[in-house]
Amino acid sequence: MASVRTTRRRLGACAATVLAVTVGAGVLASPGAVAAPAAATGGVGASAADEAKLPVGAEIVSTGDTGYLTSRKDESGNAVLEWHKYADGSVMPINTGTVGHDSNSDTVVTSDGGSTVWLRDMNSGDSWSTFFELASVFKPGAKLVGVVGQNLFVSVPTTGEYRELWQLAKVNGVNQKTKLTSRPYGVDYKVVASSGHDLLVLGSNRVFSGPTYRTEYWKALTNVNNGSIIDWGGAESVGPWTQDSTGAYTAGYKAWTEYTAKGTELVVAAPGTRKTFTMDSSLSSAVIAGVAGNTLLYGIPGKAEGEALSPLYARGITTVDAAPYKLLEHFSSVAHAPDGSLLVRGATAEADGLFRITDGGSGRPGVTLVSDTGRSRAIAVSESKVPAAVNLEKPGSTVPMEWTLSRANATVDLKLTHAATGRTLTKRLSQPVSDSRFAFVWDGVLDGMSAPNGAYSWQITATPADGVGGAATASGNFEVSRQANPHDFNDNGSTDVLARDASGVLWRDDLFDWPTGGRIATAKRTRIGGGWQVYNQIEAAGNLAGTPTGDLVARDTSGVLWLYLGQGDGTFASRTKVGAGWQVYSKIAGGSDLTGDGRPDLLATDTSGVLWLYKGTGSASAPFATRTRVGGGWQIYNQITAVGDIAGGAAGDLVARDASGVLWLYQGNGTGNFTSRVRIGGGWNAFSHLVGAGDATGDGRPDLVAYGPNGTYVYQSTGSATAPFTRQATTLYAGEGTRFNNVS
Fold this sequence. Notes:
It is a single chain. The chain has three helices and 60 strands. The protein is an all-beta fold. The strands form 15 sheets. It has a five-stranded antiparallel beta sheet.
């Protein structure tokens, strides 16, 4: 029988509640037709429903589409039954009876614990009500064994130990009685669940064989609309059950409790299948709270003084050997809604109140707080550990971050934002690393490439995983720094390589500045823009104007040299004119400090083979000083490349390739000139472009990128003047050896 007695000892009352049926009779509302109110939070602008709190001592009895019935004790120990409306949170006392019954509808069913039963339809504005004296309608000893909507199911004694099961309702003011069984001997009945208009009945009767008898246990279905007769002889056999047995009935499953020599067993059946879950001794008094989708819900209800609290457990039905898990920390009563969801009075680690449990589909059941008692503890961020200064110069550097919450069952959403560009990184931390500590180790990558230098903000939003309470936030700042790289255009310390395709579009490839598996990987390619076909030479020139990032120069077909200042985000400012007459030079090389003053310089060879030095000034309006002659004879080289200090000398160095493909090293002497050349090796005519690429490998020395139709390689500098390079594979321009006509 589905009931809650408002006595001091709640365990017995709570256990009775979960024996209830699952849906009401009559026309059923569509699932979700009336939504349960959200968790009560109070605060400015809160509605009456939001402000309503569940009394601490209240237990759930029954629920329909428009509200729910609770039972509690007042200060004098008297029973208080109350109807709570979902729409506005209002509470109406129910002054009939002391025991409530789960009707699975908007009909409130109460009794005096004995023969008198009251019914009231709360969905009709409380305009319809009736009552029954079971002893008068039937005979003394009649007892209520189930409720479905406005239909009562009554076990009626006849003669001796014979009993019959009857359905009782009021139709147009007239009692309508329907006998559902004949009179088996020693019978007992219990309605344990319903779905739609069908209800699941457990029964037992005695079968004599001479002077002895045996007890047969069975289950059967009947319907509130047609009053179909229950033929216990044709019913399905089950194991022993008692009046403490519980059950559930949904579109997919029938479930009930049996008590065998093995112990308490929870049985779940579907067409053609049957699963049995045997409880251990600690759960020998477990009851079935219900079935949500493909999940069985069970546990020991109640919170009696001196007794340990028992969780509400959930266990997958369709999953083989599915392990049980806690859905609530504990529970004390359950009611079943017409849409198949359950209302459960219980608690999580953070909240105490009334929870709605719904079908979670292929996942775990949904748990939503409907009304709390005011004892819930909001989630909070109690500690944040994020370094204020982050140095990502060392290859493979990471940034550990950690936050401690007031509770563990939460998700943490992290957002890192680079102040200068607004680029963000978001990450969801769904599980704590231990206890309630959530951690994230940042690899220094943002938007697919090494994160730029500068100020960052971080913010976390911690959201309760069970939906109890609001989210909590915490925020802070940190600074990222790396050493400057002359071939870096977005201020992240890693090498960028520029390439122009045949259509005149200029592209920037950002490299990760640490080898992985002996290979230099590309991070991200970005389109800078079109129209660059007007230039016959484009050269990365290093930091010409004193900003942290590199600049470039480009010479047009009329011989005018233009300066593009890097803006630190991978783009360039509008061009400014450096000067005309640069058509006299056949080759231009930039990006290396040749004079030892800390500023990059520019080299150019004229058509007669003289090499000229343009010393950098640090001024954007006049970036180069008057040229000085370095020396003649450079017409033997078809490419010159300023590579920086690759051999540990006084200043930047130069490599030059002759017509036979031999590459020569010229070490800078710090005065704008070079020491005697050193032969590096032959075969370099396989490449169409050689680029001084800054430190591409993260070892503190500048490197060389070689691009050609047969592949692209990074030549890592060794610091040796006699053997200055070792070759590294790279994903840069893989399969694109003929796509670009200018690489710098």
